[in-house]
Write a structure and sequence with these properties.
Elements lengths: L1 E7 L2 E8 L2 E5 L1 E6 L19 E4 H6 L1 H10 L1 H5 L5 E4 L2 H7 L6 H10 L4 E3 L10 H18 L7 E3 L8 H12 L6 E3 L3 H5 L3 H12 L8 E3 L8 H6 L4 E4 L1 H7 L2 E4 L2 E4 L11 H5 L2 H6 L2 H29 L2 H9 L3 H12 L1 H5 L10 E2 L9 H13 L7 E5 L9 H5 L3 E6 L2 E4 L11 E2 L6 H16 L10 H14 L3 H5 L4 E5 L6 E6 L2 E6 L6 E3 L1 H10 L6 E4 L4 H5 L4 E2 L3 E4 L8 E5 L5 E7 L3 H4 L6 E8 L2
Parallel strand pairs: 4-5, 4-11, 5-6, 7-8, 9-10, 10-11, 14-18, 15-16, 23-26
Antiparallel strand pairs: 1-2, 2-3, 12-13, 16-17, 19-20, 20-21, 21-22, 23-25, 24-28, 26-27, 27-28
Length: 620
Protein backbone atom coordinates (compact mmCIF):
# COMPACT_ATOMS: atom_id res chain seq x y z
CA UNK A 1 0.00 0.00 0.00
CA UNK A 2 1.24 3.46 -0.90
CA UNK A 3 -0.05 6.74 0.50
CA UNK A 4 0.88 10.38 -0.22
CA UNK A 5 1.69 12.64 2.73
CA UNK A 6 3.04 15.72 0.93
CA UNK A 7 3.60 16.70 -2.68
CA UNK A 8 5.13 19.13 -5.13
CA UNK A 9 3.80 18.30 -8.58
CA UNK A 10 4.62 14.68 -9.44
CA UNK A 11 7.13 14.45 -6.59
CA UNK A 12 5.68 13.12 -3.38
CA UNK A 13 6.53 12.31 0.19
CA UNK A 14 4.86 8.91 0.41
CA UNK A 15 4.62 5.93 2.71
CA UNK A 16 5.18 2.50 1.17
CA UNK A 17 4.23 -0.29 3.57
CA UNK A 18 6.12 -3.58 3.41
CA UNK A 19 6.34 -6.72 5.51
CA UNK A 20 9.32 -5.33 7.47
CA UNK A 21 8.16 -1.75 7.96
CA UNK A 22 7.47 1.37 5.97
CA UNK A 23 9.65 3.25 3.49
CA UNK A 24 9.27 7.03 3.26
CA UNK A 25 9.72 8.22 -0.30
CA UNK A 26 11.71 9.57 -2.02
CA UNK A 27 14.06 6.87 -0.76
CA UNK A 28 17.52 5.67 -1.68
CA UNK A 29 18.16 1.93 -1.41
CA UNK A 30 21.90 1.16 -1.25
CA UNK A 31 22.85 -1.90 -3.28
CA UNK A 32 24.27 -4.72 -1.13
CA UNK A 33 26.50 -7.33 -2.70
CA UNK A 34 26.45 -10.26 -0.23
CA UNK A 35 29.95 -11.24 -1.41
CA UNK A 36 31.45 -7.84 -0.63
CA UNK A 37 29.77 -5.92 2.21
CA UNK A 38 32.44 -3.35 3.01
CA UNK A 39 29.71 -1.37 4.79
CA UNK A 40 27.29 -3.57 6.71
CA UNK A 41 23.60 -2.89 6.03
CA UNK A 42 22.95 -2.10 9.71
CA UNK A 43 25.72 0.53 9.60
CA UNK A 44 23.71 2.34 6.94
CA UNK A 45 20.80 2.95 9.31
CA UNK A 46 22.63 5.84 10.99
CA UNK A 47 23.22 7.41 7.56
CA UNK A 48 19.51 7.47 6.74
CA UNK A 49 18.84 4.12 5.07
CA UNK A 50 15.29 2.88 5.52
CA UNK A 51 15.68 -0.01 3.10
CA UNK A 52 18.31 -1.74 1.00
CA UNK A 53 18.35 -3.71 -2.25
CA UNK A 54 20.30 -6.85 -3.02
CA UNK A 55 20.52 -9.25 -5.94
CA UNK A 56 18.50 -12.46 -5.67
CA UNK A 57 20.34 -13.90 -8.68
CA UNK A 58 23.73 -13.62 -6.92
CA UNK A 59 22.30 -15.29 -3.82
CA UNK A 60 20.65 -18.02 -5.87
CA UNK A 61 23.85 -18.86 -7.78
CA UNK A 62 25.90 -19.25 -4.56
CA UNK A 63 24.99 -22.53 -2.88
CA UNK A 64 25.90 -21.37 0.65
CA UNK A 65 24.06 -18.08 0.32
CA UNK A 66 21.06 -19.79 -1.27
CA UNK A 67 20.74 -22.37 1.50
CA UNK A 68 21.23 -19.72 4.19
CA UNK A 69 18.60 -17.45 2.70
CA UNK A 70 16.07 -20.27 2.28
CA UNK A 71 16.66 -21.57 5.81
CA UNK A 72 16.96 -18.34 7.81
CA UNK A 73 15.45 -15.78 5.48
CA UNK A 74 16.99 -12.87 3.59
CA UNK A 75 16.87 -10.48 6.53
CA UNK A 76 18.80 -12.84 8.77
CA UNK A 77 21.33 -13.49 6.01
CA UNK A 78 22.08 -9.76 5.71
CA UNK A 79 21.52 -8.93 9.41
CA UNK A 80 19.03 -6.23 8.46
CA UNK A 81 15.54 -6.11 9.94
CA UNK A 82 14.19 -3.33 7.73
CA UNK A 83 12.65 -3.58 4.24
CA UNK A 84 14.77 -5.36 1.64
CA UNK A 85 14.12 -5.24 -2.09
CA UNK A 86 15.62 -7.84 -4.41
CA UNK A 87 16.60 -7.54 -8.05
CA UNK A 88 16.25 -10.56 -10.31
CA UNK A 89 19.57 -10.43 -12.14
CA UNK A 90 18.34 -9.02 -15.46
CA UNK A 91 21.25 -6.60 -15.69
CA UNK A 92 23.83 -9.28 -14.90
CA UNK A 93 22.39 -11.54 -17.60
CA UNK A 94 22.45 -8.62 -20.04
CA UNK A 95 26.10 -7.85 -19.24
CA UNK A 96 27.31 -11.47 -19.38
CA UNK A 97 25.03 -12.49 -22.24
CA UNK A 98 23.49 -15.55 -20.64
CA UNK A 99 20.26 -16.60 -19.01
CA UNK A 100 20.65 -19.50 -16.61
CA UNK A 101 17.54 -19.21 -14.47
CA UNK A 102 13.83 -19.44 -15.22
CA UNK A 103 11.80 -16.21 -14.94
CA UNK A 104 9.12 -17.79 -12.75
CA UNK A 105 11.71 -19.61 -10.66
CA UNK A 106 13.55 -16.42 -9.65
CA UNK A 107 10.29 -14.76 -8.56
CA UNK A 108 9.36 -17.84 -6.51
CA UNK A 109 12.83 -17.80 -4.98
CA UNK A 110 12.51 -14.16 -3.94
CA UNK A 111 9.21 -14.98 -2.28
CA UNK A 112 10.72 -18.03 -0.57
CA UNK A 113 13.57 -16.03 1.00
CA UNK A 114 10.97 -13.49 2.21
CA UNK A 115 12.01 -10.48 0.18
CA UNK A 116 9.78 -7.49 0.90
CA UNK A 117 9.81 -6.32 -2.72
CA UNK A 118 10.71 -8.80 -5.43
CA UNK A 119 11.39 -8.00 -9.07
CA UNK A 120 10.44 -9.82 -12.25
CA UNK A 121 13.12 -11.15 -14.60
CA UNK A 122 12.61 -8.48 -17.25
CA UNK A 123 14.50 -8.40 -20.54
CA UNK A 124 17.03 -5.57 -20.33
CA UNK A 125 16.73 -3.24 -23.32
CA UNK A 126 18.88 -0.16 -23.61
CA UNK A 127 20.95 0.09 -26.79
CA UNK A 128 18.78 -2.37 -28.72
CA UNK A 129 17.34 -1.59 -32.14
CA UNK A 130 13.66 -0.74 -32.32
CA UNK A 131 12.72 -4.24 -33.48
CA UNK A 132 14.79 -5.91 -30.78
CA UNK A 133 13.41 -3.59 -28.09
CA UNK A 134 9.86 -4.30 -29.24
CA UNK A 135 10.38 -8.05 -28.81
CA UNK A 136 12.06 -7.49 -25.44
CA UNK A 137 9.09 -5.45 -24.24
CA UNK A 138 6.74 -8.23 -25.33
CA UNK A 139 8.74 -10.83 -23.38
CA UNK A 140 8.94 -8.60 -20.31
CA UNK A 141 5.15 -8.11 -20.26
CA UNK A 142 4.58 -11.87 -20.61
CA UNK A 143 6.97 -12.58 -17.74
CA UNK A 144 5.29 -9.94 -15.59
CA UNK A 145 1.86 -11.52 -16.13
CA UNK A 146 3.19 -14.93 -15.16
CA UNK A 147 5.10 -13.54 -12.17
CA UNK A 148 1.89 -12.32 -10.53
CA UNK A 149 1.04 -16.01 -9.89
CA UNK A 150 4.22 -16.61 -7.88
CA UNK A 151 4.55 -13.44 -5.79
CA UNK A 152 2.70 -14.68 -2.71
CA UNK A 153 2.53 -11.95 -0.05
CA UNK A 154 5.66 -10.29 -1.40
CA UNK A 155 5.28 -6.92 -3.11
CA UNK A 156 6.14 -7.32 -6.77
CA UNK A 157 8.00 -4.86 -8.98
CA UNK A 158 7.27 -5.14 -12.70
CA UNK A 159 9.91 -3.33 -14.72
CA UNK A 160 9.15 -0.99 -17.62
CA UNK A 161 11.49 -1.59 -20.54
CA UNK A 162 11.57 -0.25 -24.12
CA UNK A 163 15.02 1.21 -24.68
CA UNK A 164 15.10 4.84 -25.77
CA UNK A 165 11.86 4.48 -27.72
CA UNK A 166 9.08 6.52 -26.14
CA UNK A 167 6.24 4.62 -27.81
CA UNK A 168 7.59 1.30 -26.55
CA UNK A 169 8.01 2.68 -23.04
CA UNK A 170 4.43 3.98 -23.18
CA UNK A 171 3.09 0.63 -24.39
CA UNK A 172 5.03 -1.32 -21.75
CA UNK A 173 3.86 0.97 -18.95
CA UNK A 174 0.25 0.84 -20.12
CA UNK A 175 0.19 -2.96 -20.27
CA UNK A 176 2.04 -3.41 -16.98
CA UNK A 177 -0.30 -0.95 -15.24
CA UNK A 178 -3.18 -3.35 -16.00
CA UNK A 179 -1.54 -5.92 -13.72
CA UNK A 180 -1.89 -3.63 -10.69
CA UNK A 181 1.55 -4.63 -9.40
CA UNK A 182 3.00 -2.99 -6.29
CA UNK A 183 6.05 -1.11 -7.60
CA UNK A 184 6.97 -0.05 -11.14
CA UNK A 185 10.70 0.22 -11.82
CA UNK A 186 11.97 1.96 -14.94
CA UNK A 187 14.77 -0.25 -16.17
CA UNK A 188 17.40 -0.26 -18.86
CA UNK A 189 18.58 3.26 -18.09
CA UNK A 190 21.99 2.66 -16.51
CA UNK A 191 23.83 3.13 -19.84
CA UNK A 192 21.99 6.45 -20.32
CA UNK A 193 23.10 7.68 -16.91
CA UNK A 194 26.65 6.43 -17.26
CA UNK A 195 27.00 8.33 -20.54
CA UNK A 196 25.15 11.34 -19.06
CA UNK A 197 22.37 11.20 -21.67
CA UNK A 198 19.92 12.92 -19.37
CA UNK A 199 17.78 14.24 -22.23
CA UNK A 200 16.92 10.66 -23.28
CA UNK A 201 16.59 9.64 -19.63
CA UNK A 202 13.99 12.34 -18.99
CA UNK A 203 12.03 11.30 -22.09
CA UNK A 204 12.06 7.68 -20.95
CA UNK A 205 10.79 8.60 -17.48
CA UNK A 206 8.00 10.83 -18.85
CA UNK A 207 6.84 8.24 -21.40
CA UNK A 208 6.66 5.63 -18.64
CA UNK A 209 5.15 7.81 -15.94
CA UNK A 210 2.33 9.08 -18.18
CA UNK A 211 0.99 5.54 -18.49
CA UNK A 212 1.59 4.13 -15.01
CA UNK A 213 -0.85 4.17 -12.12
CA UNK A 214 -0.25 7.28 -9.98
CA UNK A 215 -1.03 5.25 -6.85
CA UNK A 216 2.05 3.06 -7.34
CA UNK A 217 5.62 4.05 -6.46
CA UNK A 218 8.09 4.28 -9.34
CA UNK A 219 11.64 3.00 -8.94
CA UNK A 220 14.40 4.37 -11.17
CA UNK A 221 16.84 1.48 -11.44
CA UNK A 222 20.52 2.35 -11.18
CA UNK A 223 20.03 6.05 -10.42
CA UNK A 224 22.95 6.09 -8.05
CA UNK A 225 24.35 9.61 -8.39
CA UNK A 226 22.77 12.40 -6.32
CA UNK A 227 22.93 14.89 -9.19
CA UNK A 228 20.00 13.05 -10.81
CA UNK A 229 17.78 12.70 -7.71
CA UNK A 230 16.00 16.10 -7.88
CA UNK A 231 15.13 15.81 -11.58
CA UNK A 232 13.95 12.22 -11.29
CA UNK A 233 11.84 13.02 -8.21
CA UNK A 234 10.28 15.98 -10.02
CA UNK A 235 9.24 13.60 -12.82
CA UNK A 236 7.59 11.25 -10.32
CA UNK A 237 10.28 8.73 -9.36
CA UNK A 238 9.94 7.61 -5.73
CA UNK A 239 12.69 5.03 -5.23
CA UNK A 240 16.35 4.97 -6.26
CA UNK A 241 19.09 2.40 -5.82
CA UNK A 242 22.81 2.95 -5.76
CA UNK A 243 25.87 0.79 -6.15
CA UNK A 244 27.84 3.87 -7.21
CA UNK A 245 28.89 4.55 -3.65
CA UNK A 246 31.06 1.42 -3.59
CA UNK A 247 32.01 1.30 -7.28
CA UNK A 248 33.38 4.83 -7.13
CA UNK A 249 35.05 4.20 -3.78
CA UNK A 250 37.03 1.28 -5.22
CA UNK A 251 38.37 3.72 -7.80
CA UNK A 252 39.12 6.43 -5.18
CA UNK A 253 36.31 8.63 -6.50
CA UNK A 254 34.27 10.82 -4.20
CA UNK A 255 30.65 11.68 -4.92
CA UNK A 256 29.42 15.25 -4.50
CA UNK A 257 26.03 16.73 -5.42
CA UNK A 258 27.45 18.35 -8.54
CA UNK A 259 29.72 15.58 -9.77
CA UNK A 260 32.44 13.06 -8.94
CA UNK A 261 36.08 13.81 -8.13
CA UNK A 262 39.19 11.66 -7.99
CA UNK A 263 40.87 11.76 -4.60
CA UNK A 264 44.23 12.41 -6.28
CA UNK A 265 42.86 15.67 -7.73
CA UNK A 266 41.62 17.05 -4.41
CA UNK A 267 43.54 19.36 -2.09
CA UNK A 268 40.54 19.99 0.18
CA UNK A 269 37.44 18.03 1.19
CA UNK A 270 34.47 20.34 0.56
CA UNK A 271 32.22 18.27 2.79
CA UNK A 272 31.29 18.05 6.47
CA UNK A 273 30.08 14.44 6.63
CA UNK A 274 31.48 12.31 9.49
CA UNK A 275 34.24 10.94 7.24
CA UNK A 276 35.41 14.31 5.94
CA UNK A 277 35.12 15.82 9.42
CA UNK A 278 37.40 13.12 10.81
CA UNK A 279 40.03 12.94 8.07
CA UNK A 280 41.74 15.42 5.79
CA UNK A 281 42.75 14.74 2.17
CA UNK A 282 46.27 13.64 3.00
CA UNK A 283 45.06 11.21 5.66
CA UNK A 284 42.68 9.60 3.17
CA UNK A 285 45.43 9.29 0.58
CA UNK A 286 47.77 7.62 3.08
CA UNK A 287 45.27 4.98 4.22
CA UNK A 288 45.53 1.32 3.33
CA UNK A 289 43.43 0.51 0.25
CA UNK A 290 40.62 -1.34 2.03
CA UNK A 291 40.35 1.23 4.80
CA UNK A 292 40.31 4.08 2.25
CA UNK A 293 37.69 2.31 0.13
CA UNK A 294 35.37 1.98 3.11
CA UNK A 295 35.92 5.60 4.16
CA UNK A 296 35.15 6.93 0.67
CA UNK A 297 32.15 4.59 0.34
CA UNK A 298 30.80 5.99 3.61
CA UNK A 299 31.36 9.54 2.36
CA UNK A 300 29.56 8.69 -0.88
CA UNK A 301 26.56 7.32 0.99
CA UNK A 302 26.42 10.32 3.32
CA UNK A 303 26.39 12.64 0.32
CA UNK A 304 23.71 10.59 -1.41
CA UNK A 305 21.41 10.44 1.60
CA UNK A 306 21.94 14.13 2.24
CA UNK A 307 20.73 14.91 -1.29
CA UNK A 308 17.61 12.81 -0.71
CA UNK A 309 16.93 14.90 2.40
CA UNK A 310 17.27 18.09 0.33
CA UNK A 311 14.75 16.73 -2.16
CA UNK A 312 12.30 15.82 0.61
CA UNK A 313 12.54 19.26 2.18
CA UNK A 314 12.06 20.91 -1.21
CA UNK A 315 8.90 18.84 -1.76
CA UNK A 316 7.54 19.94 1.60
CA UNK A 317 8.44 23.58 0.86
CA UNK A 318 7.11 23.51 -2.69
CA UNK A 319 10.52 24.55 -4.01
CA UNK A 320 11.59 21.44 -5.94
CA UNK A 321 11.44 23.22 -9.31
CA UNK A 322 13.96 25.78 -8.03
CA UNK A 323 16.23 23.00 -6.76
CA UNK A 324 16.08 21.21 -10.12
CA UNK A 325 16.84 24.37 -12.08
CA UNK A 326 19.79 25.16 -9.84
CA UNK A 327 21.02 21.61 -10.31
CA UNK A 328 20.97 21.98 -14.11
CA UNK A 329 23.70 24.61 -13.86
CA UNK A 330 26.09 21.92 -12.61
CA UNK A 331 26.11 19.99 -15.88
CA UNK A 332 25.12 20.89 -19.47
CA UNK A 333 23.52 17.46 -19.98
CA UNK A 334 21.12 18.18 -17.12
CA UNK A 335 20.16 21.42 -18.81
CA UNK A 336 19.27 19.44 -21.91
CA UNK A 337 16.83 17.42 -19.81
CA UNK A 338 14.98 20.64 -18.93
CA UNK A 339 13.86 20.82 -22.56
CA UNK A 340 11.82 17.66 -21.92
CA UNK A 341 10.09 19.32 -18.95
CA UNK A 342 9.44 22.43 -21.01
CA UNK A 343 7.85 20.33 -23.76
CA UNK A 344 5.62 18.51 -21.25
CA UNK A 345 4.50 21.47 -19.12
CA UNK A 346 0.86 21.05 -20.18
CA UNK A 347 0.84 17.50 -18.79
CA UNK A 348 2.86 18.46 -15.72
CA UNK A 349 0.35 21.22 -14.89
CA UNK A 350 -2.28 18.61 -14.03
CA UNK A 351 -0.23 17.59 -10.99
CA UNK A 352 0.83 21.07 -9.90
CA UNK A 353 -0.52 22.56 -6.67
CA UNK A 354 -2.74 25.64 -6.96
CA UNK A 355 -0.31 27.54 -4.75
CA UNK A 356 2.74 26.88 -2.62
CA UNK A 357 4.18 27.80 0.75
CA UNK A 358 7.17 29.60 -0.75
CA UNK A 359 7.38 32.36 -3.30
CA UNK A 360 8.02 31.54 -6.94
CA UNK A 361 11.73 32.17 -7.47
CA UNK A 362 13.23 32.89 -10.88
CA UNK A 363 16.31 30.71 -11.33
CA UNK A 364 16.93 30.30 -15.06
CA UNK A 365 15.45 30.65 -18.53
CA UNK A 366 13.32 27.61 -17.75
CA UNK A 367 11.53 29.29 -14.83
CA UNK A 368 8.98 30.95 -17.13
CA UNK A 369 8.08 27.49 -18.48
CA UNK A 370 7.14 25.94 -15.14
CA UNK A 371 3.66 24.38 -15.12
CA UNK A 372 2.31 26.89 -12.63
CA UNK A 373 3.18 29.74 -15.03
CA UNK A 374 1.63 27.83 -17.92
CA UNK A 375 -1.55 27.62 -15.83
CA UNK A 376 -1.43 31.34 -14.99
CA UNK A 377 -1.16 32.36 -18.64
CA UNK A 378 -3.81 29.88 -19.79
CA UNK A 379 -6.38 30.90 -17.18
CA UNK A 380 -5.87 34.62 -17.66
CA UNK A 381 -6.21 34.17 -21.40
CA UNK A 382 -9.39 32.08 -21.12
CA UNK A 383 -11.09 33.41 -17.99
CA UNK A 384 -10.34 37.11 -17.58
CA UNK A 385 -13.19 39.44 -18.60
CA UNK A 386 -12.36 43.14 -19.14
CA UNK A 387 -14.57 45.82 -17.60
CA UNK A 388 -13.93 48.84 -19.82
CA UNK A 389 -13.78 49.72 -23.50
CA UNK A 390 -10.33 51.23 -22.97
CA UNK A 391 -7.10 49.42 -22.06
CA UNK A 392 -3.95 50.93 -20.55
CA UNK A 393 -0.62 49.10 -20.37
CA UNK A 394 1.70 49.96 -17.47
CA UNK A 395 5.21 48.81 -16.62
CA UNK A 396 5.83 46.61 -13.62
CA UNK A 397 6.74 48.39 -10.39
CA UNK A 398 6.32 47.44 -6.73
CA UNK A 399 4.02 44.57 -5.70
CA UNK A 400 1.16 44.34 -5.32
CA UNK A 401 0.57 46.62 -8.29
CA UNK A 402 -2.75 47.85 -6.85
CA UNK A 403 -0.91 49.71 -4.09
CA UNK A 404 -0.80 52.52 -6.62
CA UNK A 405 -4.20 54.12 -5.96
CA UNK A 406 -4.06 56.00 -9.25
CA UNK A 407 -4.11 52.74 -11.20
CA UNK A 408 -7.15 51.49 -9.31
CA UNK A 409 -9.09 54.66 -10.12
CA UNK A 410 -8.43 54.61 -13.85
CA UNK A 411 -11.58 54.00 -15.89
CA UNK A 412 -9.74 51.49 -18.05
CA UNK A 413 -8.51 47.92 -18.10
CA UNK A 414 -5.09 48.21 -16.49
CA UNK A 415 -2.73 45.49 -17.72
CA UNK A 416 0.72 45.24 -16.15
CA UNK A 417 3.55 44.26 -18.45
CA UNK A 418 5.31 42.08 -15.90
CA UNK A 419 8.32 39.75 -15.98
CA UNK A 420 5.86 36.92 -15.47
CA UNK A 421 3.62 37.96 -18.39
CA UNK A 422 0.42 40.01 -18.89
CA UNK A 423 -1.25 40.61 -15.52
CA UNK A 424 -4.62 42.42 -15.14
CA UNK A 425 -4.35 44.61 -12.06
CA UNK A 426 -7.34 42.85 -10.46
CA UNK A 427 -5.26 39.63 -10.29
CA UNK A 428 -2.15 41.16 -8.77
CA UNK A 429 -2.42 39.34 -5.42
CA UNK A 430 -2.98 35.74 -6.59
CA UNK A 431 -0.25 33.11 -6.55
CA UNK A 432 2.29 33.28 -8.14
CA UNK A 433 1.93 36.92 -9.26
CA UNK A 434 2.42 38.70 -5.94
CA UNK A 435 4.54 35.85 -4.59
CA UNK A 436 7.13 35.81 -7.39
CA UNK A 437 10.68 37.10 -7.31
CA UNK A 438 12.35 38.04 -10.59
CA UNK A 439 15.64 39.88 -11.08
CA UNK A 440 15.61 43.34 -12.60
CA UNK A 441 17.15 41.90 -15.75
CA UNK A 442 15.96 38.49 -16.94
CA UNK A 443 17.47 36.42 -19.75
CA UNK A 444 16.57 37.00 -23.38
CA UNK A 445 14.48 33.82 -23.73
CA UNK A 446 12.31 34.77 -20.75
CA UNK A 447 11.78 38.31 -22.06
CA UNK A 448 10.85 37.10 -25.52
CA UNK A 449 8.45 34.49 -24.18
CA UNK A 450 6.79 36.92 -21.75
CA UNK A 451 6.45 39.50 -24.55
CA UNK A 452 4.88 36.90 -26.83
CA UNK A 453 2.33 35.97 -24.17
CA UNK A 454 1.66 39.64 -23.49
CA UNK A 455 1.06 40.39 -27.18
CA UNK A 456 -1.22 37.37 -27.56
CA UNK A 457 -3.26 38.42 -24.53
CA UNK A 458 -3.80 41.95 -25.83
CA UNK A 459 -4.74 40.69 -29.29
CA UNK A 460 -7.45 38.48 -27.81
CA UNK A 461 -8.71 41.01 -25.27
CA UNK A 462 -12.29 41.88 -26.21
CA UNK A 463 -13.08 45.12 -24.45
CA UNK A 464 -16.52 45.95 -23.16
CA UNK A 465 -18.41 48.48 -21.08
CA UNK A 466 -19.28 47.14 -17.62
CA UNK A 467 -17.77 49.65 -15.27
CA UNK A 468 -17.73 48.96 -11.54
CA UNK A 469 -15.57 49.90 -8.59
CA UNK A 470 -12.18 48.26 -8.17
CA UNK A 471 -12.98 45.92 -5.26
CA UNK A 472 -15.94 44.42 -7.13
CA UNK A 473 -13.79 43.97 -10.22
CA UNK A 474 -11.12 42.32 -8.10
CA UNK A 475 -13.34 39.72 -6.40
CA UNK A 476 -15.07 38.98 -9.71
CA UNK A 477 -11.82 38.47 -11.59
CA UNK A 478 -10.39 36.19 -8.90
CA UNK A 479 -13.57 34.10 -8.79
CA UNK A 480 -13.53 33.58 -12.57
CA UNK A 481 -9.80 32.79 -12.57
CA UNK A 482 -10.04 30.34 -9.68
CA UNK A 483 -13.38 28.58 -10.28
CA UNK A 484 -14.12 29.15 -13.96
CA UNK A 485 -15.59 31.79 -16.22
CA UNK A 486 -18.99 32.90 -14.96
CA UNK A 487 -18.30 32.04 -11.30
CA UNK A 488 -18.41 35.75 -10.42
CA UNK A 489 -21.99 36.01 -11.67
CA UNK A 490 -23.04 33.05 -9.53
CA UNK A 491 -21.27 34.18 -6.36
CA UNK A 492 -21.79 37.94 -6.36
CA UNK A 493 -25.27 38.40 -7.82
CA UNK A 494 -26.82 40.71 -5.23
CA UNK A 495 -25.91 43.22 -2.55
CA UNK A 496 -22.20 42.83 -1.84
CA UNK A 497 -20.47 43.61 1.46
CA UNK A 498 -16.69 43.37 1.56
CA UNK A 499 -14.88 43.05 4.88
CA UNK A 500 -11.25 44.16 4.93
CA UNK A 501 -8.41 43.67 7.36
CA UNK A 502 -7.96 46.69 9.63
CA UNK A 503 -4.22 46.10 9.70
CA UNK A 504 -3.53 45.67 5.98
CA UNK A 505 -6.64 46.97 4.23
CA UNK A 506 -6.81 43.78 2.18
CA UNK A 507 -10.04 41.91 1.46
CA UNK A 508 -10.78 39.14 3.93
CA UNK A 509 -14.46 38.16 3.58
CA UNK A 510 -17.19 38.72 1.01
CA UNK A 511 -20.93 38.61 1.73
CA UNK A 512 -23.76 38.58 -0.81
CA UNK A 513 -27.30 39.39 0.34
CA UNK A 514 -26.16 38.86 3.92
CA UNK A 515 -24.66 35.41 3.30
CA UNK A 516 -20.95 34.67 3.80
CA UNK A 517 -19.84 33.55 0.33
CA UNK A 518 -16.04 33.40 0.38
CA UNK A 519 -12.99 34.30 2.45
CA UNK A 520 -9.76 35.47 0.85
CA UNK A 521 -6.57 33.76 1.93
CA UNK A 522 -3.75 36.14 2.78
CA UNK A 523 -1.15 33.56 1.76
CA UNK A 524 -2.04 33.25 -1.93
CA UNK A 525 -4.87 35.69 -2.71
CA UNK A 526 -7.34 32.91 -3.53
CA UNK A 527 -10.81 32.29 -2.11
CA UNK A 528 -11.90 29.71 0.42
CA UNK A 529 -15.46 28.68 -0.37
CA UNK A 530 -18.12 28.88 2.33
CA UNK A 531 -21.32 26.82 2.28
CA UNK A 532 -23.37 29.60 0.68
CA UNK A 533 -20.75 30.07 -2.02
CA UNK A 534 -20.65 26.33 -2.68
CA UNK A 535 -24.42 26.25 -3.12
CA UNK A 536 -24.27 29.13 -5.60
CA UNK A 537 -21.58 27.49 -7.72
CA UNK A 538 -23.30 24.12 -7.54
CA UNK A 539 -26.48 25.67 -8.91
CA UNK A 540 -24.60 27.60 -11.61
CA UNK A 541 -22.12 25.05 -12.98
CA UNK A 542 -23.33 21.83 -14.58
CA UNK A 543 -21.66 18.50 -13.72
CA UNK A 544 -18.87 17.56 -13.63
CA UNK A 545 -17.58 21.12 -13.09
CA UNK A 546 -15.89 21.46 -9.67
CA UNK A 547 -17.43 18.16 -8.51
CA UNK A 548 -15.96 15.24 -6.59
CA UNK A 549 -18.53 12.43 -6.67
CA UNK A 550 -18.51 10.12 -3.64
CA UNK A 551 -20.01 6.70 -2.92
CA UNK A 552 -23.28 6.49 -0.97
CA UNK A 553 -21.70 4.73 2.01
CA UNK A 554 -19.37 7.67 2.60
CA UNK A 555 -22.09 10.35 2.68
CA UNK A 556 -23.04 10.05 6.41
CA UNK A 557 -19.39 10.44 7.41
CA UNK A 558 -18.83 13.43 5.13
CA UNK A 559 -21.93 15.11 6.57
CA UNK A 560 -20.28 14.73 9.98
CA UNK A 561 -17.26 16.64 8.68
CA UNK A 562 -14.98 13.66 7.93
CA UNK A 563 -12.52 13.89 5.07
CA UNK A 564 -13.13 12.18 1.73
CA UNK A 565 -10.84 9.18 1.26
CA UNK A 566 -9.75 8.24 -2.24
CA UNK A 567 -11.34 4.79 -2.12
CA UNK A 568 -14.80 6.42 -1.85
CA UNK A 569 -14.37 8.70 -4.88
CA UNK A 570 -16.39 7.59 -7.91
CA UNK A 571 -15.51 10.45 -10.23
CA UNK A 572 -14.05 13.92 -10.30
CA UNK A 573 -13.79 16.99 -12.52
CA UNK A 574 -10.65 16.54 -14.62
CA UNK A 575 -9.88 20.27 -14.27
CA UNK A 576 -9.52 20.11 -10.47
CA UNK A 577 -5.95 20.42 -9.27
CA UNK A 578 -4.29 19.65 -5.92
CA UNK A 579 -5.52 22.15 -3.28
CA UNK A 580 -8.39 23.42 -5.43
CA UNK A 581 -11.76 24.22 -3.86
CA UNK A 582 -14.22 21.42 -4.65
CA UNK A 583 -17.90 20.58 -4.40
CA UNK A 584 -18.43 17.17 -2.78
CA UNK A 585 -21.55 15.59 -4.28
CA UNK A 586 -23.48 12.32 -4.37
CA UNK A 587 -24.05 10.21 -7.47
CA UNK A 588 -27.31 12.12 -7.91
CA UNK A 589 -25.41 15.44 -7.76
CA UNK A 590 -26.72 16.33 -4.30
CA UNK A 591 -24.32 18.81 -2.68
CA UNK A 592 -22.96 17.14 0.46
CA UNK A 593 -20.04 19.36 1.47
CA UNK A 594 -17.35 21.75 0.31
CA UNK A 595 -13.66 21.06 0.70
CA UNK A 596 -10.14 21.29 -0.65
CA UNK A 597 -8.68 18.64 -2.94
CA UNK A 598 -5.43 16.89 -2.09
CA UNK A 599 -5.26 14.92 -5.35
CA UNK A 600 -6.22 15.36 -8.98
CA UNK A 601 -8.73 13.15 -10.77
CA UNK A 602 -6.26 10.48 -11.89
CA UNK A 603 -4.97 10.07 -8.36
CA UNK A 604 -8.41 10.00 -6.72
CA UNK A 605 -9.51 7.17 -9.02
CA UNK A 606 -6.27 5.23 -8.55
CA UNK A 607 -5.33 5.44 -4.87
CA UNK A 608 -6.77 3.00 -2.35
CA UNK A 609 -5.47 4.92 0.65
CA UNK A 610 -5.17 8.55 1.65
CA UNK A 611 -7.27 11.69 1.78
CA UNK A 612 -8.60 12.86 -1.58
CA UNK A 613 -10.48 15.93 -0.30
CA UNK A 614 -10.24 17.71 3.04
CA UNK A 615 -13.81 18.46 4.05
CA UNK A 616 -14.24 22.00 5.30
CA UNK A 617 -17.98 22.42 5.74
CA UNK A 618 -20.91 20.05 5.28
CA UNK A 619 -24.03 21.34 3.54
CA UNK A 620 -27.33 21.05 5.42
Amino acid sequence: MFEIKARDGLARIGILKTGHGSITTPALLPVINPHFMIIKPKEMLSMGAEAIITNAYIIYKDENLREGALKKGLHSLLSFNKPIMTDSGSFQMYVYGKRDIDADEIVSFQNAIRSDIGTILDVFSSEASYGEAKEQVKKTIERARNAMKFKGKMLLATTVQGGIYEDLRSKAAKELAKLNADVYPIGGVVPLMESQRFFELAKVIVASKKNLLPSKPVHLFGAGHPMIFPLAALLGCDLFDSSSYIKYAKDDRLIFPDGTYKLSMLEELPCSCPVCSKYDVDELKEMEKNERTKAIACHNLWQSFNEIKKVKQAIRDGSLWELVERKTTTHPALMEAMEVLKKNKKWLEKWENISKKRAFMYVSRYSIHRPIIYRLHKRIMERYTPYFDKTIVVEEKGKPYSRDEKLKKLRANVIVKASIGAIPIELDEIYPVAQSVFPRFTDGDTRRYANRIFKKFLENLITRQNEMEYDLRKIGSIADYQFGKGASQALFNGKIRIVKSKATGKIRNVYCNGRHIVSMRASDGFFTLKAAGAKALHAFFTPPKMRVVIAREAIPFIREGRNVFAKFVLDCDDELRPYDEALIVSEDDELIAVGQTIMNRQEMLSFERGVAVKTRESIS
